[in-house]
Structure formats: structure tokens, C-alpha cells
């Protein structure tokens, strides 16, 4: 698991806002209205998909006037960092918007600001992802800048030194956050070293930062960056043919890259254990209770287990919030989720925050609700209500160009056909009560859950 989600953003300057920005913002206000009907219509049939310059280019025109949103990725995330230095992928991605061989970062930012466009890059466990937004007329500019930053980053020694200091500073600040420390401890306990979701220690990452060189980044970029499995999604007021022409021009002659790894890690279940990360003078204790699961998002049981998990711990309608928070007043926030399962088996966890003096009571209440949910299962009424809510949330997520582009990219990452987007509500509706309760028992073992406590834990203090 990446210790630090690195994100670089060149965005709109809100001072001296040019008229092009105002037009973009005006257009954005129309997005929800214009896309509400599109979210109800079939999406897959309206998508234009083509291989252009060896890049998978997906375009979905909508009724939104002027606005175009981009999402994309290529497999060059942290899990591909060389064994000799675990920070190389993060650092390479972090240098993408720090200037190219032909123009520095200030020139690039000025071009984006002048037209009210955005373009950003980030690195996660498996992917380098990028996102952008612009007016229709500025698509050629954005595609050209995207290609330039992906293909020819400058890797300036001066900017590299600054980046290392910035990342080190952010990591040092993160060490003071109980939630970060709990998540780090959980991922390093339930996942084996070498698993993409495994979390290295902060000390190890800081040492890797210090040891990294520009030559390391150039070598990583040469090996892993290329069109081999680059995906580009464009949604909004887009002409697919014109988009393809711009991609062909901007990325012409680029080759190489790597295919996404076929992650096939298997788990050996760990016996239940408890780990404390003591942090002095913290007003709360972050708690994670859970386990690794042997299914990924596309597995047959994944959707029933998600329905069950939503019933237990999603928002104010979840059982955990209704009891541990609302009835008993033991926490300000608690929930359950499945995650980290796009490309490989992920994990199931309950996340909560308790004040130190209420920690024991809060944990006892959480375990009681977990046991009842596990032993007795959920009800037909809860399943029906949850399926309706999840379907509604999904449709709302499709009501903006940002949501549509993100959903299309996530669908491809999970290995689904694009028709999955259209059939998801039907898939939800087909989930039965028996499937939901069976998934709980099949994939979860509460007696073997790992418990992480990070913060001013009273027993540790004593």
C-alpha cells in the first residue's frame, strides 16, 4: 500500500480570473441538469472506443455544453518500484508536472491557467492516474500537455530535491495522524511483503527517498512509461474523431511501457491479534478491526458482501452508527467497508474513532453489533432498502462528467465490460437475502480479525 498518495495539480488561479474560466464555471453549473437523463440511459452503446497510437481511447459524448473531463491511467504504481528502492514510482510520478524537456512547470501552469483548465497526476499502489478538465476548444492543448508531461519529464535535479523534501515533510506530518498510523499498521499486518497493498514503514520510505537519484527515476520512466496499457477516457462535449486525431498527433512515435501485473497473491489467514500504536496526547484513538479477504471486486460474492457490509456500517443508516453512535453516544464516527480490491484480493474493515476514556466501551459495543450481524445475518427489509439506496447512489455518481469518467475508468480497471455500468442496477436487484447472509459467513471470520489501536491508548500509557 502506498504510504503517501502523491498528487500534483496545476489548476485554475482564482485571482484575475479570465473570461474562459468564467465560461467553464458557467458550463459546469449545467452539468447536473443535463446529465440527469443521460445517467438513466444506456452508456455502453454510446461509447466510442478505439486504439490510437497504441492507447486505449474511450470517448463518451454527453449533452453538457463546452465541458470535457478526462481520466486515465497506466501501470507504473508503487508495486512496480524496484526492489532496491520502494520510493521510485512515487517520485517518478511526482516529477511529471515539474517541467518537461521543452518547458518548465511555470510555463505549463500558465497555459492551463490562461484557459481555466486543470491537469493532475497521482500515483497509487498499481497505477499512475491522471485527470483533467477543460473547455471543448482547449482539448488539443490539454492532450498535447498530457503527452508532453508523460513522455518527456525534465527530471530536473533542483525540482527533484524539492519534491523529496515535500514528500518527507508530508510523511512526517502524517505520522501525527492516528488514522494514518492505524491504516499503516493494519496493512502491514494483514498483507504479506510483496503484496501491492502491503504498507512499508515510514522509516523505510524516508530512507528510500533519501537514497533515490534522478538516474533511478529516468530508468524507471524508460522501463514503465509508454502506451502499452495506457487508458484515456474523455466525457462531455467531445467529438470522438477529433479526440482520436489529437491523441494520434500528440503521442505519435511513443512506444514501450509495461502491462499491468497479474497479481495472484494468496493469503494464509492470520490468527486474531491485537496491535497498539501508542501516540501521546491524542484526543482520540483510531481503531481498525478486520481481515484480508480472498475475493476481488469482480468476484461473484463481492456484490452480496458489499450489500451486507453497507447494512452493517455505511453512514447513518448503518447498524454501527445507529447503535454505537446514536443510541450509546460512544463515538462520532464508525463504519465498515471493503476496499483495495480492484486488481487483487483486498480487505474488510470496521473503522472507528473513540475517546481514550470510552475506548473499551466502544470496542465492546462494536464487537457486540458485529457478532449479532454475523450470527443472525440481515433481514429482507434491510436488503431491499440497501439495494435501492446503492442503485440510487450509483446513478447520482453518473450525473456529472467527473463521475462518468471515473466510473468508466474504474469499470475497465476492475476487468468489467463497459456494459457493466448499464447492468449494475439489475445486478443489484438480483442479489438475494440468502446470498447476502451466505457471503458474510463464507468470507469473514470475526474470531480471526486483526485489531489495531492508534492513539493515546490508556492501557499502553500505563
Question: Helices and strands in order, then pairings?
Answer:
Layout: E1 6-10, H1 19-28, H2 31-35, E2 48-52, E3 55-61, E4 67-74, H3 88-94, H4 105-115, E5 118-123, E6 128-135, H5 139-151, H6 157-174, H7 178-190, H8 202-211, H9 214-224, E7 231-236, H10 240-250, E8 273-278, E9 285-292, H11 302-313, H12 319-327, E10 333-339, E11 347-354, H13 359-376, H14 380-397, H15 401-413, H16 419-430, H17 433-443, E12 450-455, H18 458-461
Features:
462 residues, alpha+beta, Cytochrome Bc1 Complex, Chain A, domain 1, seven-stranded mixed β-sheet, five-stranded mixed β-sheet, 18 helices, 17% strand
Describe this protein's structure:
It is a single chain. The chain has helices at 19-28, 31-35, 88-94, 105-115, 139-151, 157-174, 178-190, 202-211, 214-224, 240-250, 302-313, 319-327, 359-376, 380-397, 401-413, 419-430, 433-443, 458-461, and strands spanning 6-10, 48-52, 55-61, 67-74, 118-123, 128-135, 231-236, 273-278, 285-292, 333-339, 347-354, 450-455. It is an alpha+beta fold. The protein has 2 domains: 6-250, Metalloenzyme, LuxS/M16 peptidase-like (Cytochrome Bc1 Complex, Chain A, domain 1, 2-Layer Sandwich), CATH 3.30.830.10; 273-461, 2-Layer Sandwich (Cytochrome Bc1 Complex, Chain A, domain 1), CATH 3.30.830.10. The protein has a 7-stranded mixed sheet with strand order 1-5-6-4-7-3-2. A hairpin with a 2-residue loop joins β2 (48-52) and β3. α5 packs parallel to α10. Mean pLDDT is 90; it is low at 5-40.
